[in-house]
Amino acid sequence: MDSPDSARRTATLLLVDAAGVVLGALLPIEVATPWWNDIAPLVRAVQQRDGLHVTVLRLLGAERDAGPGGAVWYLAQVSRPVAGLRPWTGLLNDDPLRLPYARVGGPQADLDWASSVLQARGLHLAGAPEQIRTWNLSSLWRLPTSDGSEVWLKAVPPFFAHEGTVIDLLASHPVPRLLGRDGPRVLLAPVAGEDLYEADESTCKAMIDLLVELQSHWLGRGDELAALGLPDWRGTAFTAKLETLLERRAAELVAEDRGGLEAFVQRLPQRFAAIAGCGLSEGLVHGDFHRGNFRGESTSLTLLDWGDSGIGHPLLDQAAFLDRVPAAFVGPLRLHWTQVWQRVQPRAEVDRAAALLAPVAAARQALIYQHFLDNIEASEHPYHRHDVVDWLQRTATMLRRHHGASLEGQLKEKTG
Fold first, then answer.
1. 269 plus 156 within the same structural domain
2. Alpha-carbon distance 218 to 282, whole Å?
3. Domain range for residue 145?
């Protein structure tokens, strides 16, 4: 069992000035939350203790090989000299994969762009921007404006740069409203309500209704989405990517898992053919569909965070959602999902498609995390270091214990 202190985060900030000159390190400080990318409470803690405003640029290192909690080191920028800092003799090496917002001056460049978007709309900043989050997947700021609202500035890595395009494409649906976009950064209008991490069963059903209604417009339109730069998780592309991933990570798997996954990959063409035979076409996948990516109320929901979106079977979104709700919700929500899709496609074998897709959805997670690791700088790897092998192992376990025999039987029944 973890100790009571296991989730505590103690942060040390190495400070640099606007020219990137190292000034020294602040004393370690306790942060109210354990999550390494949760920057707002860290900035507030430094302001309260040291009277100093900092902009956190990136993670430098961590005591643990994965979060949350523990001792963590960050690089932060300040705008004025700071007395009483501890000397620091390490090196700040460059990394070709470093994101613009993780570099000195990067966050300010994003803020300047956001200000220009507001000015074009007759607005301006009405207070200090608040840094909410920064890590290898996003930089998020809350900006108070002259009309009394708070808009959101979000910058993402290149592999999520299609988010603005997707939000614009879905503008007639309950997604955030774009105020401006520029490649990997967007400025978003405020969304009324609250984050819905703890949504009840009824609200979860409304979330499923919203997703299915949205996805129904994109059935069979995968090539249109591919032209916009979305990741492709359809049969041929998915099989090739997973085969390559297994070759790369095979040595980290026990023989039983490795063999099961190799057999799984070999039969993926038959599996995808069986899935296609269930009567639902491929199309738009949200990619990170869970309660926490909704904001609003039960009668007014907005689906956030489209950076993980891609092209594939719409039921790829089901497993992640059901994995993150209370166990008592799973049966009713699964039934509701089936009923909603069957209103769209009355002859679709929704339950069979979902069962066939379950290990595909798990393996997709491994592909996603490997893609992150291949495209982020080394100091950020602790965020995702164990995820690839973990999801490959989960997929193997799923095939072996929960789905293997019944799914193989379904494949043989339909494909011979």
1. no
2. 8
3. 101-188
Same domain flag for 170 and 265: no
Helix 268-276 to helix 235-249 angle (10° resolution) is 150
Identify the pLDDT of residue 7: 82
The DSSP string of 87-151 is: P--------TT--GGGSTTHHHHHHHHHHHHHHHTT--B-S--EEEEEETTEEEEEEEBTTS-EE
Distance CA 290, CA 204 (A): 9
Element (DSSP H or E) covering residue 411: helix 404-415
Tokens of 27: 């004393």
Q: Are residues 301 and 322 in the same domain?
A: yes
What confidence tens digit (pLDDT) does each residue in 34-72 have?
Answer: 999 999 999 999 999 999 999 999 999 999 999 899 999
Q: Give the domain CATH number at 184.
A: 3.30.200.20
Beta bridge partners of residue 143, listed in sequence order: 151
User: Residue 34 contacts by C-beta under 8 Å, 6 or more apart in sequence?
Assistant: 7, 8, 9, 67, 68, 69
Cβ–Cβ < 8 Å for 301, 174: yes
The pLDDT tens digits for 368-408 are: 999 999 999 999 999 999 999 999 999 999 999 865 445 55
Q: Is residue 2 part of a domain?
A: no
| 36, burial (CB in 10 Å: exposed 0-12, middle 13-18, buried 19+) | buried
Q: Count CA atoms within 13 Å of residue 132 on its CB side.
A: 12
Instruction: Render pLDDT for 253-299 as a digit per residue (tens, 0 to 9).
Output: 999 999 999 999 999 999 999 999 999 999 999 999 999 999 997 67
* Cβ proximity of 135 and 37 under 8 Å: yes
Together in a domain, 339 and 199:
yes
How many Å apart are CA 275 and CA 184, to the nearest integer?
34
Q: Are strands 9-16 and 70-77 parallel, antiparallel or unpaired?
A: parallel
DSSP 251: G
Q: Are residues 310 and 407 part of one domain?
A: yes
Residue 398 DSSP one-character state: I
